[in-house]
Structure prediction request, 150 residues.
Amino acid sequence: MANTGGMTVDGGDMLRYNEYSSKTSVRSDAEIDRRLGGTLIAVGLGVAAAGFAGRYAFQLWKPLGQVFSETVKKMPTSAFSTYYKGGFEQKMSRREASLVLGISPTSTKAKVREAHRRIMVLNHPDKGGSPYLAAKINEAKDLFDKESRR
Prediction:
């Protein structure tokens, strides 16, 4: 049997073996363990560095955090509220009427009627609402109706 460059005379068994053998080099378990160990060490050092950097940042910025919290405490809380702060005026103005009904001061008569109906359903005295609030809601509607007649 003559061997001519990886192919045998007896039918090419060597050729078939070479076709199906993997082309990549097979790594040993020791080499895989070494590479995995190196990766784990690198990840551990990265986490430790991030922890130390975070600790340093918290220590460095602690006085700044105190200044920031004091500034926030000095700010009025009503600046961030979506609700109207304050009581009712003696004589209801168009602005106050629009705040009570939740509409624009330049709203149409249909919008005023719809807003009044929606709010009165929620605040009617027969349904457990306040008679005072119901009177203020009606006063707001009457103010818009009176001004739209002129």
